[in-house]
Design brief:
Length: 426
């Protein structure tokens, strides 16, 4: 392990801080998640180094510091793929299958999975630490199962075959290749994180929406607005993970590209066969050309023969977590529908109050019109002209009575008209 680290790391200046041993809480498997942590070296922009957590196929982990170009050469990845893992940039969830690696960007889990190791960006996030501990636990458990069942070469051959079946002929997740185990833990961590976020949002949303239906206030409306913004953002993230898994399931070529262990053994087999036969052409360039042509033909024949059989394990794995993330998306969709129903109910309530105000204003306007009749009568009799009615002592009483009767009659006529036209529920 130390030799591998020396090959990966470029020469350090004398001022660089060496990796120091620290006491960590042991994981469920009894081992420490990291062998050493260099907190000062998490980001060394000046030197171009970045801290990575390396977990090998045996479950051993360590902290290494590798520059970008060394990582590109080691994993045979372009710079744009490593840019997906940069925490300074916000990229949607992505799973990319490359020639020698799988690039995974799922929420907090940003890692590179190869046939032999997992390179995870070092972070103090709790979900990253849980990912490392869980991956170590599963790899350790799988290693114990392999030692228990490694009886004879026939079982070893069956375990290294594509089906990865157990002794009893039933598929077991412990016999999946290393890259699929690491991918499964990443998918599980991402789905668990998103599901917990959805559960927290549900716990907060339903009481708040019920309170809003009973008491409409500016404070409650503002809280619901913030809640809906969080819901939209979370739904977008869950939808992206779901679409990424669905896209992988729909593309057989992308799934076949992610069988790194088999591609590695397939690329190494022609060299071993040529070495065992003792075939040594005099020209090394011709040898390389012949071997590359033979390897490409061999790979094309194998891929054409085992088209659909090669992706069964990965397809079942992706389908299982597709169901999980789809269930989370259904929760968020139900919550969004509940919010929409609450908004519709509130709008109906507001419309009802608005209609009541309009009806009251209509009655008030009608009453004002009736009262205005008294003002018209008073204005007429207040003019300076002489009529015999002014000399009658009881004329004032009769004028008031007649005006009142006419006003009440006009008011009742208006009310009947409103009821007839269904403008008021009277």
């Amino acid at each position: 392990m130390a030799d591998l680290k020396e090959r990966l790391l470029p020469p350090k200046p004398a001022s660089a801080v060496n990796l120091r041993d620290a006491s960590y809480r042991p994981s469920a498997s009894g081992r420490q998640p990291f062998q050493g942590v260099d907190v000062m070296g998490l980001k060394k922009r000046g030197q171009g180094l970045r801290s990575w957590i390396r977990v090998d196929s045996s479950g051993n982990s360590q902290i290494i510091e590798v520059d970008k170009f060394t990582m590109m050469r080691r994993c045979d990845l372009p710079a744009r793929d490593l840019r997906l893992l940069d925490p300074l940039f916000v990229y949607p969830s992505t799973i990319l299958g490359r020639e020698k690696a799988i690039v995974v960007n799922l929420e907090q889990i940003r890692c590179i999975i190869t046939a032999d190791e997992v390179l995870l960006l070092n972070s103090l996030d709790n979900y990253v630490l849980q990912y490392v501990v869980e991956l170590q636990r599963r790899l350790t458990t799988a290693a114990v199962g392999e030692v228990w069942q490694s009886e004879g070469p026939e079982l070893n051959r069956r375990r290294s075959s594509r089906n990865y079946d157990s002794v009893f002929g039933t598929p077991s997740p412990d016999y999946l290749p290393f890259e699929f185990r690491a991918l499964e833990v990443a998918l599980e961590a991402a789905c668990t994180f998103l599901d917990s976020q959805a559960a927290e949002l549900e716990i907060e949303a339903y009481p708040l929406l019920d309170e809003l239906t009973s008491k409409i206030s500016t404070l409650n409306l503002e809280r619901v607005r913030r809640l809906k913004s969080r819901l939209v953002a979370l739904t977008r993230r869950v939808q992206k993970v779901r679409d990424e898994i669905e896209q992988l399931m729909d593309d057989d070529g992308d799934m076949a590209e992610m069988y790194l262990t088999e591609k590695k053994s397939r690329m190494e087999s022609p060299f071993h066969e040529q070495g065992s036969m003792g075939f040594r052409p005099p020209d090394s360039r011709r040898l390389d050309k012949c071997l590359s042509i033979a390897r490409s033909r061999h790979e094309s024949m194998r891929s054409s023969e085992s088209g659909t059989e090669s992706i069964e394990e990965l397809e079942m794995l992706l389908e299982a977590y597709f169901v999980v993330i789809d269930s989370t998306l259904n929760k968020l969709t139900s919550l969004k529908e509940y919010i929409d129903d609450t908004e519709d109910f509130i709008n109906i309530q507001l419309d009802n109050v608005r209609n009541q105000l309009i009806q009251f204003e209509l009655i008030l306007t009608t009453a004002t019109f009736v009262v205005a009749i008294f003002g018209v009568v008073a204005g007429i009799f207040g003019m300076n002209f002489a009529i015999p009615l002014f000399d009658n002592p009881g004329a004032f009483k009769w004028v008031l009575m007649i005006t009142a009767v006419c006003g009440i009659t006009i008011f009742c006529a208006f009310v009947w008209f409103f009821k007839y036209r269904r403008l008021m529920p009277l």
